[in-house]
């Protein structure tokens, strides 16, 4: 069924369909329900219905040219060396994984991205490890000359204690993203909660099933234009010559658009490497972590 046909079948009239075509599918799917209902002078229910149909139908709808032409919003990391290798930062609507050992700076990276992403919309922080630190967010906000209270008021924090809870949090995040502009959704960390709840080989199949469900909702959220950033631990070292490997195996492996490996360097320095990306070459950036967050050396 064509897009036009699907919209008509849902009771959307020709005039509205014409306006949608004028605005462009890519722009319409990035709007919130409220924005679209105002723009087209229609009810929020109709706006929701239109967005749902467009999201469902747009697979295979875009040509490579459309993708090239669509405005590529990126969220800067606030570190020039990292922005350089990422060509400006994390892409809107993309899924990024940052993995590394304990103390590598994964949570610090998330805190900094949260502070910066607030410029583009609200941020949702799902903290599965009780690691969220408002005082670190304050320090980072001050470094970027932002009002800490204002920043903190735009970051919604969930602290799920179980896989069920995590799924509920991510579903709520999806509901938020439908109603208002959420620039960034952070899950710090994604896998630990699954690993502690589903222990042993006999639980592996169920664990992967539950994880797939969560990944599906994350993908849905990213397709609304919200960037998704999640952290991951590394699996035990096989030998000294091996590099760290992210946990989660093949289910996680092919899910993100961008995979970043974070590790400690000399002193307070850190090294971030692009391990996998559909558009960026493998590259490394060196920076440091200070009271004010991640900074260039
Ligand atoms: N106020 C600060 N000033 C300077 N460096 C800091 C400050 N706070 C944290 N750090 C640095 O950040 C490190 C902790 O990083 P972070 O908590 O992001 O690690 P992580 O990768 O999330 O680890 P985990 O896997 O345990 O969650 C500390 O070891 C320290 O080097
Ligand atoms: Mg952490």
Task: Give the SSE layout.
Elements: H1 3-9, H2 14-23, H3 25-29, H4 33-40, H5 44-57, H6 64-69, E1 74-75, H7 80-85, E2 90-91, E3 95-99, H8 106-117, E4 122-127, H9 134-143, H10 148-153, E5 155-158, H11 163-179, E6 182-188, H12 192-197, H13 204-222, E7 227-232, H14 249-253, E8 258-264, E9 269-277, E10 284-290, E11 293-295
Parallel strand pairs: 3-7, 3-8, 4-5, 4-6, 6-7
Antiparallel strand pairs: 1-2, 8-9, 9-10, 10-11
Helix pairs in contact: 4-5, 8-9, 11-13
Bound molecules: adenosine-5'-triphosphate and magnesium ion (MG).
Residues 100, 102-108, 129, 131, 289-291 line the site of adenosine-5'-triphosphate.
Can you offer a commentary on this structure?
By secondary structure, this protein is of the alpha/beta class. The protein has 2 domains: 67 residues; 222 residues, P-loop containing nucleotide triphosphate hydrolases (Rossmann fold, 3-Layer(aba) Sandwich). Helices cover 44% and strands 20% of the residues. It contains 14 helices and 11 strands. The protein has a 9-stranded mixed beta sheet with strand order 5-4-6-7-3-8-9-10-11, with helices on both faces. Strands 1-2 form a two-stranded antiparallel ribbon. Helix 8 crosses helix 9. The longest helix is centred in the last third of the chain and has 19 residues. The chain is globular, with a radius of gyration of 20 Å. The chain starts with a helix and ends with a strand. The structure holds adenosine-5'-triphosphate and magnesium ion (MG). The site of adenosine-5'-triphosphate has 13 residues, from helix 8 and strand 10.
């Amino acid at each position: 069924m064509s897009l036009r046909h699907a919209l008509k079948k849902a009771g959307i009239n020709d005039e509205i369909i014409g306006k949608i075509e004028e605005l462009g599918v890519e722009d319409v799917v990035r709007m919130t329900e409220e924005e679209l209902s105002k723009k087209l002078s229609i009810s929020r229910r109709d706006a929701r219905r239109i967005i749902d149909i467009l999201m469902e139908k747009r697979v295979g709808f875009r040509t490579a040219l459309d993708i090239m032409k669509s405005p590529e919003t990126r969220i800067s990391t606030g570190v020039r060396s990292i922005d350089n290798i990422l060509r400006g930062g994390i892409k809107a609507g993309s899924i990024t994984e940052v993995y590394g050992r304990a103390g590598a700076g994964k949570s610090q990276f998330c805190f900094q991205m949260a502070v910066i992403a607030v410029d583009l919309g609200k941020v949702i922080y799902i903290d599965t490890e009780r690691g969220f630190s408002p005082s670190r967010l304050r320090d980072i906000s001050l470094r970027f000359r932002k009002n800490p209270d204002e920043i903190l008021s735009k970051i919604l924090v969930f602290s799920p204690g179980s896989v069920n809870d995590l799924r509920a949090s991510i579903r709520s995040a999806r509901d938020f993203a439908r109603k208002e502009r959420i620039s960034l959704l952070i899950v710090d960390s994604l896998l630990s909660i699954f690993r502690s709840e589903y222990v042993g080989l006999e639980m592996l199949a169920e664990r992967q099933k539950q994880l797939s469900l969560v990944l599906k909702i994350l993908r849905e959220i990213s397709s609304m234009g919200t960037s998704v950033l999640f952290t991951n631990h590394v699996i035990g070292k096989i030998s000294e010559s091996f590099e760290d490997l992210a946990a989660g195996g093949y289910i996680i492996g092919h899910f993100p658009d961008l995979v970043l490996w974070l590790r400690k360097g000399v002193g307070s320095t850190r090294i971030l490497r692009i391990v996998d990306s559909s558009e960026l070459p493998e590259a490394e950036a060196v920076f440091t972590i200070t009271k004010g967050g991640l900074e260039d050396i």
